[in-house]
Amino acid sequence: MVMVDGSLDAEKIAGYFKGKSILITGATGFLGKILVEKILRVQPDVRRIYLLVRAMDAHSAKQRVEAEVTDTELFCLLKEKHGKGGFELFVEEKVVPLAGDVVFENMGLDAPRLEELANEVDIIVNGAATTNFYERI
Q1: Which of 50, 66, 108, 129 is most solvent-facing, going by the fewest CB within 10 Å?
Q2: How many angstroms separate the Cα of 69 from the Cα of each of 1, 7, 42, 105, 121?
Q3: What is the pTM of this model?
Q4: Cβ-count burial of 32 within 10 angstroms (0-12 exposed, 13-18 middle, 19+ buried)?
């Protein structure tokens, strides 16, 4: 991290994400959706943001990302900036929902998708957590 006068240089941090692809787990959680919105708002030149979400298939993953992430009030600034149709196109271009789960081997993803991620992803942010509050600590 770059420090300027004791504080983070936000411009350099935002610039770091330009042209990069990011895999985020836990994107439907409180911090995850804030991270997704912040990246899209301050660095719209991010290449792709892959969001691993618990879902049965690609269609369900897309629906979950829309309902729990991009269709939330948190994204109102981006919606205002792009307009409704423009926002939907922007998200479709940048955000790639992935049906999977970190508890499974290879996150529950098939070999071709894993290879795609290995070739594409520059940054991984693991924010996944269990929603079972009876699990062992």
Answers
A1: 129
A2: 27, 29, 17, 25, 21
A3: 0.87
A4: buried
